[in-house]
Amino acid sequence: MQILQTPKSRAFLALVVIASIGALLAAPVPTTQTVQYKSGDDTVSGYLALPAGGGRHPAIIVIHEYWGLNDWIKQNAQKFADQGYVALAVDLYRGGVASTPGDAQELMRALPKDRAARDLEAAFTYLAARPDVDASRIASVGWCMGGTYSFQVAIHEPTLAACVVNYGAPPTDAAEIAAIHAPILGNFGADDRGITPDAVNAFKQAATAGGKSVDFKEYDGAGHAFENPSNAGGYRPEAAADAWNRIDAFLAKELKP
Amino acid sequence: MGNFARLAVIAMLLAQHGATRTQIVSYASGSETARGYLALPSESGRRPAIIVVHGDRGLTDWTEEQAQKLAARGYVVLAVDLYRGEVARDAEDAHELSRGLPDDRALRDLQAAFAYLAARPDVRKTKIGAIGWNIGGWYALQLAIHQPELAACVVTDSALPTDTADVARIRAPVLGNFGADDRGIPAAALRAFESAMRAAGGSADLKAYPGASDGFDDPSDTDHFRAGDAANAWDRTLTFFARTLGR
To answer: Is there a contact between B184 and A193 if contact means CB atoms under 8 Å apart?
Structure first.
């Protein structure tokens, strides 16, 4: 490290350090921590990202894909905290994180859906009880499997303020659709084999006919998990950026951070 | 050998091997039409029946084979097609299709399958059971929760309900076969389900095979297939159905 011994480079290093500290002070720094709360008789944990500033904030339940609570989901929670939301990323697998599709499928298949529903209800209750959260402004956001669960939160939490679904399976049961109160934003890949445009449109029609607020967009040339950068073959950067813009605008409109 | 003798031999072979007839059938599910693969036994008269629920790959050849094997044992068997025509080509496809399946529609299709079988003149409607693998096991248990007339339920490598009110609604005795090395379904989950069933006055017999994991009974799953465990699980299944549904 010869270079650090010259006075010039020392001055440069000092500048870099000062600039970094300045950047850290200027940018909102979300605080993150693992929190625990009760779900039925069990104690579950989640990844909490807090925004800067005091007072009550709107909040978001962040629901992971079939991979589990991995780094990408945590980053998304931090991103929401940067924007002024209290973000709780749930861990429906309770510690399991997959690195191969086979593993992920094994974990998804093994997840008791009733337990997942209970954990999500517990996450909502946990956020609503926090002194820094405005309980009337809680949203859910999910991708893939988490998108399907985001619909379920909307069905079972009548006071949910907004629901974002990224390629999750829409419910088909008329009574379940009728139970939804939150406005819904959805981003779907038109080439998704499992969640077909027909299924997306059928939900949209039924929900709209029932007076629900539904804003769905289908991305041509995009399939399953197009928003995830680690989805090597399927990541669509432009569609993903557009989807994120839609999510940000929708949450800002519904939750007003 | 005369014609009569030849016919007698054929009849004997049919009886031994329980030759089955198969066909695709359609039936109403809500306002939609669902479709299934029906395998009929050679025996006549009213028979016990079984709903076969496929895993995350869909209604595959292997699933249809299981339906035929059960029909050869004297059951009227309906293998449902929850994906409605789609079959997965690989693991990613299986994920995409299973994640895209609406739970409420799957349950509606299973109720419709039950109603279809119960209305058939060749079915003893108090003796209808269900068997499911992988995601199909979860859905078979959902049917057990929501259809009190279901008489037996067999699951393999499936998630188990944890809600005690749901478990208390299960009237059908439950048999389960699991790989002990299954990453997602630990031994504690099996014991919790068994004790919740017992507490509610039901019966559950879940077995975990040491060294086995998800897919241990499917020969096409070359990574996980274990012939001995698979044979044992199948014996347990047949014995259980013979006891709960008759033959």
So the answer is: no
pLDDT in tens, B60-97: 999 999 999 999 999 999 999 999 999 999 888 899 99
CATH of the domain at A156: 3.40.50.1820
pTM of the model: 0.86
From the list B99, B134, B135, the residue facing A194 with the nearest CB is B99
Give domain status of residue A4, yes or no. Answer: no
Which residue matches tokens 């991979």? A67
Residues of A with CB under 8 A from a CB of B: 66, 93, 96, 101-115, 118, 144-145, 148, 168-173, 176, 192-196, 199, 223-224
Task: Give the residue numbers spanning the domain of A116.
Answer: 31-255
* Contacts for A65 with CB less than 8 Å, ≥ 6 apart: A73, A104, A143, A144, A145, A146, A225, A228
Is A197 a member of any domain?
yes
Say how far apart CA A67 and CA B152 lie, in whole Å. Answer: 33
- Which of A67, A103, A105, A203 is the mutation pick for testing B, counting most B CBs within 10 A? A105
The answer to whether B100 contacts A111, with C-beta atoms less than 8 Å apart, is no
pLDDT digits (tens, 9 = 90+) for B26-43: 999 999 999 999 999 999
Q: Give the model confidence (pLDDT) of B166-192 as tens digits.
A: 999 999 999 999 999 888 888 999 999
A189 falls within a domain: yes
Check CB contact under 8 Å for A105 and B163. no
Interchain proximity A101–B92, CB inside 8 Å: yes
The answer to whether residue A134 sits within a structural domain is yes
Angle, nearest 10°, between helix axes A113-129 and A145-156?
60
Please classify residue A166 by burial: count the beta carbons closer than 10 Å to its beta carbon, then call 0-12 exposed, 13-18 middle and 19+ buried: buried
Tell me the domains of chain B and their CATH numbers.
19-245 (3.40.50.1820)
Q: Which of residues 133-192 of B touch A (CB under 8 A)?
A: 134-135, 138, 157-163, 166, 182-185, 189
The count of structural domains within chain A is 1
Provide the token pair at B93. 């496809």
